[in-house]
From TrEMBL:
This is Synaptojanin-2-binding protein. It comes from Rhinolophus ferrumequinum (Greater horseshoe bat). The gene is LOC117031273. It is found in: Mitochondrion outer membrane. Residues 13-100 form the PDZ domain. GO terms for biological process: cell-cell adhesion; establishment or maintenance of epithelial cell apical/basal polarity; receptor clustering; receptor localization to synapse. One of its GO terms (molecular function) is protein kinase binding. PROSITE patterns: PDZ (PS50106).
Amino acid sequence: MNRRVDYLVTEEEITLTRGLSGLGFNIIGGTDQQDVSNDSSIYVSRIKENGAVDLDGRLQKDDKILSANGQDLKNLLHQGAADLFRNAGYAVSLRVQHRLQVQNGPIAPRGEGELRGGPRAMVLVPVFSLTMVVAWAFMRYRQQL
């Protein structure tokens, strides 16, 4: 039972301060290194641990970078985009596009231990609790007889 997966696309302006080791991320893409067929956009391919981007937390792997310091990144070679980031200065303003997956139901077969959309514990714990309450009430009733 496969269902369609949709994406929520948002844009954000992120201003970063360059750290000792640079901005702290790698890119993929460009007109000469398309990561996605017929898409020469620049994407974040890796975030370096404890780098400026990692410490800031807003830019994520696979985000599309639309511009840097107001310069559009469309139709740039990969090396041109890398040079733009390298020479962008101490404070760098990035316009980015986040693509968040919105799941519309299961996209894979249910895992073991799940019943119709929920884990067994969500069903068994309330049933067990109710059984215990009924048993307690029955024992109290028998004591009164």
